[in-house]
Amino acid sequence: MPGAGDPHGRPLMMTTSRQPSLGIIVVGASLAGLRASEALRAQGYRGQLTLVGDEPYAPYDRPPLSKALLAGTSAPEALSFPLDPDLGITLRLGVPAVRLDLDARTIELADSTRLPFAGLVIATGAAARPWPDRSPRGVHTLRGRDDALALRSELGTEARLLVVVGGFIGSEVAATARELGAHVTLVEAESQPLRRAMGEEAGRFLAEIHRAAGVDLKTGTSVSSFAGLDQLTGATLSDGTDLDATVAVVALGAVPNTDWLADSGLLLDRGVVCDTYCRALLSDGSPAPAVVAAGDVARWPHPWAGDSAVSLGHWSNAIEQAEAAAATLLAKEGELSPYLPVPSFWSDQYGVRFRSVGIPALGDEAEVVESDSIARRLEVVYYRQGNMVGVLTANRISRIAGHQRRLAAELAAGIE
């Protein structure tokens, strides 16, 4: 095999190549990490390729964690992505990376192993944001396979589940728990679930779906504390209400996994800050040689966001950005292509399929085209300074493709 510096004649995108045969390391056995590895091979890289993951499992699909795996209709093994042995990827699983030394061009693992690299893909994803105080047993977060199985073991018809915050993860857990017969209380500090990300009408639509399914939805309040010395027995809300609960899910969002990069010299701001080519930036704003990032851990500029950077925890973004990052890592200078996607995601709750394209959260105005919670149909178009930036639909899948084409055309026109 040729080395990392000679993948079918194309050099790694780097300013120096002191160790050209060391290979590429992908840190993060996530969807983005796997797709980056596959993309490197597909794009002609034949050198040494190592995939490092903190969990003991091969890369697996995460959307079913809050649905099929939690419901018990899918086995954990069924979530694993197929991994072609002919790709020649060396797996280092169950040992997280704890430090990046850019000067020495090495990754240090938790078992003190040091792995040298010529090229690096950072795809360490994000962790669930934890409850900020001590909590008794029975209080869960949901981010990985073990989290879902632990939560699953406590759900059933006798369970009284408390869901803290009604974002997409919290809402999906609530929906699955209702299917299992659990009593569900969902507490949301905003006036409607998802109001901050999707606006008032989408939030009202989702609230009606929750209540129709039998969820006790409490809005405009929040959980102040959990009760129970050892095992969860309930919670107290900010409005003084006391609730009984046997199990709780804290769904406060995600925190990018960047602790291991703290003294690396990379620019960190709610993730690994990248340029539009997926190149990780140094603290002085220049690109780090031969280091790219992809997936939940990356923040990068998008034309719709103006001067701000965006970070998207979407399945489709993990794939597309991983492919773009791999292309950047292998590109010659002057052949870089910017990563300018039209993002998309989906969510299934109570038999309703939500689909989104663009970035609705960037909108400053929402046009409600259709909203019928009885028929379970929703279509909202989002604009930012008069320009379309996103769409959310429920059970209107056929309309998504047209919106996506329009967003792609407007994005391209805005770049020209």
Overview of this protein structure:
- This protein has 416 residues and is α/β, with parallel strands linked by helices.
- 20% of the residues lie in helices and 30% in strands.
- The chain has helices at 31-42, 68-71, 145-152, 168-179, 195-198, 200-212, 315-330, 400-415, and strands spanning 24-27, 49-53, 89-93, 97-101, 106-109, 114-116, 119-122, 126-128, 139-140, 160-164, 183-188, 216-219, 223-227, 234-237, 242-244, 247-250, 254-256, 272-273, 279-281, 287-293, 298-301, 309-310, 344-349, 352-358, 365-372, 377-384, 387-394.
- The strands form 7 sheets. Strands 3-2-1-7-20-19 form a 6-stranded mixed β-sheet, with helices on one face.
- Strand 19 and strand 20 (287-293) form a beta hairpin.
- The two termini are 41 Å apart.
List the helices and strands and how they pair.
Blueprint: E1 24-27, H1 31-42, E2 49-53, H2 68-71, E3 89-93, E4 97-101, E5 106-109, E6 114-116, E7 119-122, E8 126-128, E9 139-140, H3 145-152, E10 160-164, H4 168-179, E11 183-188, H5 195-198, H6 200-212, E12 216-219, E13 223-227, E14 234-237, E15 242-244, E16 247-250, E17 254-256, E18 272-273, E19 279-281, E20 287-293, E21 298-301, E22 309-310, H7 315-330, E23 344-349, E24 352-358, E25 365-372, E26 377-384, E27 387-394, H8 400-415
Parallel strand pairs: 1-2, 1-7, 2-3, 7-20, 9-16, 10-11, 10-16, 11-12, 18-21
Antiparallel strand pairs: 4-5, 5-6, 8-17, 13-14, 14-15, 19-20, 21-22, 23-24, 24-27, 25-26, 26-27
Helix pairs in contact: 1-7
